Amino acid sequence: MTRIPLYQQVCDYIIQRIKTGEWEEGSRLPSIRTLASQLGVNRLTVLKAFQVLKDSQYVYAKDKSGYYVQKNADNQKKQQSTLNEPKIYSYIKNSHLSDIHNKPVNYMFSTSLIDPKLLPNRYLSEHVKEVFDQYPQLLGTYAPVKGDKELIKGFSAYFQKYYNFYIHEESILITTGAQQGIDIIAKVFVQSRDYVLIDSPTYSAAVDIFLNRGAQLLPIDLTTKGFSLEQVESYMKKYKPKLFYMNPTFHNPTGYTVPTEQRKQLVELAERYQCILVEDDSFHEIYFVKAPPAPIFTYDPCGYVIYLRSFSKYIAPGLRICALLAHPILIKWLVKGKALADNGTPLLNQKAFLYYLTSERVQRHMEKLRIALQLRKEAMEKELSLKQFQWNSPAGGLNLWVKLHEDINIEKFKIKALEQQISIVPGNICDPLARSIPYIRLSYSFLNEQEIKEGIQLLNEVHESLKV
Ligand SMILES: Cc1ncc(COP(=O)(O)O)c(C=O)c1O
């Protein structure tokens, strides 16, 4: 891996804040001492960065007073256009996925959400009315920050019954979706300049969350065979990362699954190098033929794995329920992080979800959902196979990770697709270092087979029109 010199990383950090307006023109930069301690680097490194930025006229120095953001034409223009706008942290401006989802289009291949028509909506809503009868004071109180006691008990029984592993109630925290779980983990364990290993490609919101903490991301390539454990070990040894975030089962965006034999070895490495594994298992139940291997969490006797099992993708997406499982020593701190985030996931959601979790009807729904998703996946693959696309057919999950013909410029492809009312996720958004890679993510879960057919036919035309 080529490493960017430390002073250059500090320059990038400062430039980003100037460009987004977070540090305004004419304002004083933090002192060398403050920035060095905030970023965990030597003062000389910050001094060198300031000098480089001064030479390139991003900042200027005032005698005995420090460094200030330069006023220049570019910034001037930006100030006019952003007048009255609040100062926005750079990472928020860099969260691209929500921008893509927000554009209304006819063929939404960018969202890995289940088509609401595939969910038992009437059944779900009927039960919500009963929840109010059963708990008349439901809206009059907060939920415990750690989660509703009944639901926690329900999760413990659920993992025992369906996955054959015992999890003590003390080790369970309910979060508002896996996304909140990742955010809390990052806030609790990651500080500015900490190293974080991350699967590559990856779930793009995770990248944004860790970058927001000021983390330095080290991508670990995920292939059809899993990770290179040599790479994992050498990075753990060299960089002593705080965390390794991964989505090892029907991975978003590739659909790959880390094989069973690697799961145990990953835990051994985590213990040896004292690096917490964050296992995001949001797609565990979405398989087509065979259930996936047991979670990495189940191989961990010592508490080095934090497990996130979201149910957003297939039971009741609107309820935003996720079970975070971890050693009680870690749970203690994560509960504090959760209290700061929202003081507890809404009680109504938790009570309603408990019913679905234990319902036989929901289990039967899962069987139908798997068949429907497989048909949609096959419909997409059939149309894609007519052109020069390449992908590995996934055994589960909601997405295809598709390689485009090498002549194609991805940015142009995305824009042309949008003109045809099609949204896709370009590969660079899923790359932890935002590198341009010749891949796109297409979700087959949101549209029906006919819509998929029409949309991919149009996408094939876009592809042809851009080939040189
Ligand atoms: C890998 C992964 N983790 C987490 C999430 C977010 O899940 P939730 O809706 O439970 O917050 C997603 C959503 O797409 C995802 O793909």
Describe the structure concisely.
This protein is α/β, with parallel strands linked by helices and 468 residues long. Helix content is 46%, strand content 13%.
Bound molecules: pyridoxal-5'-phosphate
What is the name of the CATH superfamily of the largest domain? Type I PLP-dependent aspartate aminotransferase-like (Major domain)
What's the total helix number? 18
- The low-pLDDT segments are 76-83
Report the principal-axis shape. Answer: globular
**Helicity level, as a percent range?**
40-55%
Q: What value does the average pLDDT take?
A: 90
- The end-to-end span amounts to 32 Å
Strand order of the largest sheet: 4-10-9-8-7-5-6
Rg is: 24 Å
CATH architecture descriptor name of the largest domain: 3-Layer(aba) Sandwich
Extended strand count: 14
Task: Give the structural class.
Answer: alpha/beta
And the CATH topology of the largest domain? Aspartate Aminotransferase, domain 2
The structural domain count equals: 3
User: What is the CATH C-level name of the largest domain?
Assistant: Alpha Beta
What is the beta-strand fraction?
5-15%
Largest sheet, described in full?
7 strands, mixed
Please tag this protein with its features.
468 residues; alpha/beta; Arc Repressor Mutant, subunit A; Aspartate Aminotransferase, domain 1; Aspartate Aminotransferase, domain 2; seven-stranded mixed sheet; three-stranded antiparallel sheet; 14 strands; binds pyridoxal-5'-phosphate
